[in-house]
From TrEMBL:
UniProt KW Nucleotide-binding keyword: no
Coiled coil ranges: 96-123
Topology within the bilayer: Single-pass membrane protein
Name of the protein this chain belongs to: SH3 domain protein
Length: 191
């Protein structure tokens, strides 16, 4: 009876995993949003324009009571938007573009430094430079997620330590219930 209950629970928990797995097309929510620029504070005020996400505006006034801020969108054109839609940072799309540009520059710098490192290593071998200089030239320029030089030995030690602790805990958990205690019928007397 107990085994049937466990099997039924496992089937019930795994049943939703296979439902409609291949029937749907993947979609993403667009980050293209429009914020209404109103002629005055409030939802009932007429809409002056729709501002796309990432539009740069200048804050003129902030009304905390109504939750609206007056912004300037172009010379001679201003209006009110909900304050919660304003951010001090550019939209994620613009920040991503800047970050990708910076990444490309950094990758070019890494390639340049790797080339220089190779040239210096070959030059050191030709001139018979002492071992410490060659070792310093061979050290990694940048340590990052792709750099395995720094973590080769430490990962193995950490994995071994973790496995040892897991096994010790497992054995302790299995052995402690097997230890029988002997109780004396009265305190202070020995059996």
């Amino acid at each position: 009876m107990h085994a049937r209950a466990i099997a039924a629970a496992l089937l019930w928990m795994t049943a939703p995993l296979g439902v409609h797995a291949g029937d749907s097309d993947t979609r993403y929510i667009s980050d293209e949003t429009a914020v209404t620029l109103r002629e005055d504070k409030g939802m009932s005020a007429p809409v002056a324009a729709l501002l796309k996400s990432g539009a740069k505006v200048q804050l003129l006034e902030n009304d905390a009571d109504s939750g609206y801020s007056r912004v300037k969108v172009a010379p001679g054109r201003d209006g009110w938007v909900l304050t919660r839609y304003l951010s001090t940072e550019p939209a994620a799309r613009e920040r991503l573009a800047a970050t990708l540009s910076e990444l490309t520059q950094q990758q070019a710098m890494v390639r340049k430094l790797e080339s220089e490192n190779l040239r210096l290593r070959e030059s050191a071998k030709k001139t018979g430079a002492p071992a410490p200089v060659v070792a310093a030239v061979e050290s990694p320029v940048m340590a990052g997620p792709g750099s395995s030089t720094l973590s080769q030995g430490s990962d193995a030690v950490l994995m071994g330590t973790g496995a040892g602790l897991f096994i010790a805990g497992l054995l302790t958990g299995l052995l402690i219930p097997m230890i029988r205690r002997t109780r004396s019928p009265r305190w202070g007397t020995q059996s």
